Amino acid sequence: MDDTALPHSTALHPAVPAPRLWRPKAKTGLVSWLTTVDHKRIGIMYGLFALFFLLVGGLEAILIRTQLAVPNNTLLTAHEYNMLFTMHGTTMIFLAVMPLSSALFNFIMPLQIGARDVAFPRLNAFSLWAFVAGAIILNIGWFLKAGAPAGGWFGYSPLTSREFNPGSPIDLWVMGLQILGVASVAASLNFIVTIINMRAPGLKMMRLPVFTWMTLVTSFLIVLSFPAITIALVELMMDRLFGTNFFNVAKGGMPILWQHLFWVFGHPEVYILILPAMGVVSEIIPTFSRKPLFGYPVVVFSGVFIGFIGFGVWSHHMFTTGLGTMATAAFALSTMIISVPTGVKIFNWIGTMWNGHLRMKAPMLFALAFIWMFMIGGFSGVMHSAAPADAQQHDSYFVIAHFHYVLIGGSLFSLLAAIVYWFPLIFGKITSDRWGKIAFWVIFVGFNTTFFPMHFLGLDGMPRRTFTYDTNMGWNTPNLISSIGAYMLAIGIAIYMSHLIYAYFKGPKAPRDPWDARTLEWSLAAPIPEYNYAVIPTVHDRDTWWYEKQHKEEIARERKAHASEEAAHGGIHMPFPSYYPFLACVGLLVGGLGVAAVPFGHKLVVAIIGLVIALIGIYLWALEGNEGYHLHPSKEELES
Amino acid sequence: MTSHSSTHAAGDDSHSEPGRVKLFVIIALILGIITALEIGVLFMPVIDPVRIAMLVVFSIVKFALVIFIFMHLKWDRLFCTLLFLMGLSLASGTVTILIHVFKVKDSVPLTSHASITAPAQLDAVSRTA
Amino acid sequence: MSNHSTAVTADPHLDPTTSTGIPNKKLLLWAFLASDCMFFGCLISTHLIYRLHPAPDNIDPTKVFNLWLTSGSTFVLLMSSLMMALAVNFIQKGRIVAMRWALAITIFFGLIFLGCQFYEFHNFVYEHGMTITGSIFGTTFFTLTGTHGIHVLIGVIWLTSMLIYSFSDRFSKADAIDIESMGLYWHFVDIVWIVIFTVVYLLEFVR
Question: Which residue of B90, B100, B112 is in closest CB contact with A224?
Fold first, then answer.
């Protein structure tokens, strides 16, 4: 972010000046990153944290697979194994895939709608740092004597009650998830307002790029599903801290209630993980097929429909708990229904490629693999919807195979595609297509080698969450193959990461629009100035940038008119960076650790200190106001 | 806020200040009266289903009066109403489904009052679910 | 966008007309309230599920509830909603002094409600021996109404902060959107209580 426009900037002088609050001045360096409110920088930080945790979660997975490679292995103890699978699941879902989607929402979505930032830039910074605070609380157990959480990513009651899990790890898990929930909800509220209210002129809802549409649907899912787990976690925390009876059977509590509340959140969460991926694929496939997306409205409405029905299927995670015939039948039915719009989307992607001029670049390979792998995961998913079959598959490796096919083969493949696809725009460098393809093939083969045998392991009866198995169960060979595949997958990810790092430092400079793409963000040349668009674009078509490329003269005339209009209004308004969202999150971190990790007797004191810090942050944040300064882009910038 | 004028341009009646204030006071009075009626219902000599229905209707009326008048939904863009009703309907749906799932015989815990005092009632419960 | 002075508001770039015409803050609040519906929905579900299957040692709620106290505090909360609606109306007309009075009365009513709740809890614990740990009914009742009480408390703190801020010379009619957003939150706390009053209190006396 070099600020070529800065010399032209003028500070804004409101009639009554704001009180003299401490305002960050730095434009580069650490403080500038900690205090930034620029959605692009926030997006990059989300992405870096997410990739870091992807590697952490991957390391945990490698340890798990090493332990299971041979029967009766003693590499890990049962408790260590419990910690690893708990943290692997929690990390991958909340600290890798969700923030990676969030990174793309932050960076790409405002560009796609022709906005200069999100609606509430400081709230956006708060979301990022709250996410980091939650991530620290979740993972800090590794460095404490009591160890990391070991109750499974679902934290089923009564496993998590103080009676069976007396130490701090579960408290860390609860507070970590609680704060991550705050972060996700704050970010999603921000995205909802941004997409609905800050679209460029002419950008009607039915012209939004599909990725932005899926950002919107995902944000609604987050906003409406996270309260369920918030309540569940509050109840669990009350049980653990104050001895209430929510899940205490002795006093009439029902542990099954936890499962319901958890999956009321947990199933929409599955769609929170996959819908952004579908959005990404709906961008990549048209670009590399050089055709508009086939059946745009159907793709959009399928996404909305999936989001809505996603709230009515949660009990299919609980078929074996004895819901009664009626509920089982109803949830089986709704689960079968939800596979229909998903199937529709797959036909749309195939229809987009039909008769297209396909270009098999690395992002396209990942996107195609997404369709195929996600379909395999979908097929086993439909199998689960049949309750009698599910009773056999429940808690077996078959389920593991299923959800890794949708989470890695689905979400992760598409996110890896997205990173390569948008890399030239984000970092201004071109990645090596050759090494991208090599990484793809190693990841693809490694992934299938790891997870395909698990289908058979599951059908052969190998249960989930067992830290080892006996020699005579007939599970030896598939487990060994699977572990070899896991190492291959790790090598693939290593190649992938290396080719990104190499491109960042040594790669050739990216031209504008390297893929000959279709959506608005590609009209910008990297590095993108902090105000994104020197002139707010006017949208004439669904594939805005494609239209602009075909109607250059018309667009140039229009831009000129708009530029002089904006200059007359006083230039581009930019918000000041701020310390206070970061400060508020420091308060969250201290408070969260106070509740979770500090021994009884001191909890209250530390929690109150955290609360006070957070309150100070929030009050100063409110008092400093959203004042900013004005930028006047130079003539070259206006014409670029 | 510049957009304010446009937001309220949709308002039809009671745009003048005394009109709006008067309306708010009347609504508050109605809310107070309904609350008194709700207490009255508890002492009415009618069968329980009728009383339950009345209480539910009263509560919905109060709810609607507050969101449409006090919270300005009546004068705001329709989108605000839809946004809120989406959350409200999902929440009500979730509450309804959860309660029905827990009404089923299999869900009644062995420690509960019902299964200890009157096991026969359970069949009735599961039939109604 | 709390602190627009008039000079800044005249600048269209500080407050660009939004795509829908709904101010950003209002939209944020409505989306948040939609989310909060799920929040209280799950909490109320928990309470109702445990009312469906009461443990044998549960207290009979009709013996501990003080109907007159609760309906009184319900009335007070409804009236505070009226004052809040008036405060929003006043600031939109630029009548800052009238708005201050309306806000002050809203806060006063909010405090009365909290006082009633404190008295009620105190009464339940010390007169009836109903504690949050003693029975499942105590657990769900205190958690549900307590969570609502915390919402009221946050509202009172927000209102008080805004009342104090309204004496600053930075405060103007342009801040009406902040008062209005705060009002939406306050009314929401009120409608949650309307539901709790019926579901948790009144329906107990019917069955």
Answer: B90
